[in-house]
Automatic annotation (TrEMBL):
Reaction it catalyzes: Hydrolysis of terminal, non-reducing beta-D-glucosyl residues with release of beta-D-glucose
Name under which the protein is recorded: beta-glucosidase
Domain of life, source organism: Bacteria
SMART domains: Fn3_like (SM01217)
Species this chain originates from: Hymenobacter metallicola
Biased composition (Polar residues): 813-827
Family listed: Belongs to the glycosyl hydrolase 3 family.
GO molecular function: beta-glucosidase activity
Pfam families the record matches: Fn3-like, Glyco_hydro_3, Glyco_hydro_3_C
Listed PANTHER family: LYSOSOMAL BETA GLUCOSIDASE, PERIPLASMIC BETA-GLUCOSIDASE-RELATED
Ranges of residues in domain Fibronectin type III-like: 732-802
Amino acid sequence: MTTPHPFLEAPTGATAEPSVLRNIVAARAARTLLLGALLCAWSSCQRAAVATTAAPAVSTISSSPTSAASSALPPAVVSERVAALLAQMTLEEKIGQMTQLANTVINPTGVQRDVALDSAKLVPLIRDFHVGSFLNGEAVPPTQWVKYSAALQRIAMRESRLHIPIIYGIDHMHGASYVAGTAIFPHNLNLGASFNPEFARQTARATVLESADLGHHWVFAPVLDLGVNTYWPRVYETYGEDPLVASVMGAAFVRELQENKEIAPYKVAACGKHFLGYSDPRNGWDRTNAMISDQRLQEFFRPSFQAAMDAGLKTIMINSGLINGEPVHSSKAILTDLLRRQMGFKGVAVTDWEDIIRLVRVQKTAANEKEATYMAIEAGVDMAMTPYTTNFCRYVKELVQEGRLTEERINLSAGRVLQLKDELGLFENPMPRTDRLNRIGDPALKLLALDAARESVVLLKNEQNTLPLAPGKVKRLLVVGPSADSRANLAGGWTLAWQGRPEAEYPKDVLTIYAALKKEYPGAQVQSIPYRDAAGKLSLTSISAAARTADAVVLAIGERPYTEGLGNTSDLTLPDDQQQLVRTVQATGKPNVLVVVGGRPSIIRSVAEKSSAIIWGGLPGFGGGQAIAEIISGKVNPSAKLSFTYPQFAGHISPYHHDNNENSLDLSDFGAGFENRGPKFKPAMLTEYGEGLSYTSFKYSNLQLSDSVLSGNGKVRATVQVTNTGRRAGKEAVLWFLTDEVGRITRPVRLLKHFEKQEFKPGESREMVFEIQPLPHLSYPNAQGQPQLEDGYFTLRVGDQTKRFRYAGPAATTRSTDGQKGSGSQP
């Protein structure tokens, strides 16, 4: 049995008060024998609950009647310590553990960026409501975070009858982005374009190294949604539109964040979000309805979450929207039948911001907040991010007293929250520490973020080898556009604050694209003209004049920072003023490099044709300006490939893994005269998924299969020769796609099944290998998540090479679709 809450020895440098901790330990020592007896009673209850819970039947992910029997939820698996604690706790104390409040309710000003504590506000929340978790803030210096976290924990442990520490959650989305001076990595959409899972791991490592000592125990990342709808304002938070890439990247992030040993004695929990189907709203707007079939949920939206769970994911955050008209926060089919029964998740399921009250105010599926609370708890919610009031505590208590919820149901969720705190070592090490603050802002971590940016920026077009612009040949370079001299635009939302901060508040050592180009071309005259003057008018005349005297012009266009609903849009078309800017420069006839900065693809069809070169910069983080400049100069050879399908037309959303019936329009059945009317094929994309240019060239040749027929549980070994046929070293992401030619349901035109990135010297040739197996690579799930493996022909594609083979028999065993494991393949 684990010794209950040993606080006697705080970690080196911890900001604890020894007298307080000694008193706590003394009180706990007196209760040790009592805990043992209570533990036995609790364990017996848990075994009885398991014995009386019927084995769940496999079910589809659709609406199911809400059951009043809380035993329908799988029992929580808790440690002896947690079981003993629960046995001592009152109902109110358990409900408090299920409650999460924002930092605004405990700071002096009620403003997120005020990371300070008002003890008069905090004490009653702990003493009377037993609140177990707080969240967020904004980027402040590490010392301020330590002071805040230490005061928070001291008061929490003093006022809590059982001295239970707080777990603090924070939105560190691409590095420790709510701590001043840290390494800010590219957002996930960029990392997906790198096709290098190591960068997902390094992002997680930097996050914990620069925040774990500050009292940040719970990181609300990674985003495991699929970026299939490019209108969605959070698409940049995803690893792209492919489920395999999202699975591999997400699992790499989770493992590093939760298993990192450099932050000992601390541990940090990841939070996979947003479970599930959140990223494909029908109208593209945040927190709205998605129309997704059960089968598509299983095949496309489940795998990334399953892979993260297989990697040990401790918590998930729930989809704020609806699926087929049902709010996910009240869906027992999703939060219990799928999440707990099918996928085997044992961790904490937390709501997103105000999402229980959203059932009443926005989604109109509950008459009042109390009813919404009942619906959410019965569906499977463990913790409510309320985040401003304690109404949740009152309503849950009333629901138990009325018999609508059982205390056993509350035990499940409170037990999961306490178990999370136990696994993170918070009972032993709740206090932040000051002796390792020197590693926050470590230049080595910022260099890793720069490397990630270098491999995540995509060269989309390079007409007549416009790029690279060799520094020795460029004498005058003009850099214009809204993103030319902006640090904020490079980093996007969730940087320093929820929606970013005003430009003047970003670190001055972060190079903008303009500043980086000045550094990259020391012998040239590098000029930037604001594209709007002081009165807000376009500076087209002065820009045109400067462009005519320049050797080349870099046009840095794009979006300002945003996230969530504030980023909703009905038109992705590049704004008119930016189109005017680009056309003005292009009219001069000078070589122009279009750099697209932003969290989603701006429609640039009107200006793409006359662009000499196009770079998709995305949101490359604080190293993005330098990375883009180095790609323009040729110091860095671009190696990224798009992690999404770049549309050519506004309103055209078609991920690369679309169904066959989206691929073409067959008019021949309508009779003579109709054959040549209208487009016979889908509109061409500006750039397809997985495409990206390099300053060298790669040749794919000699694709071979070890057998043309695969049967039973056998394997087929596929090999292809990849050769760097250019004059400089380069990295190439080798992407292996499979097409199921005929299926009982229409199948995607292709699906990525394996990827691997390698560096090749000039002239170097290497054999790349992919081992094809029936269940992980040839099957697809039905609506219940059961694999379907059908006889028939498949086509393998890698580069410009294709091979056809046949699967000739069912596998001897079956599996559930438990995600994809490994670094770049299934499973």
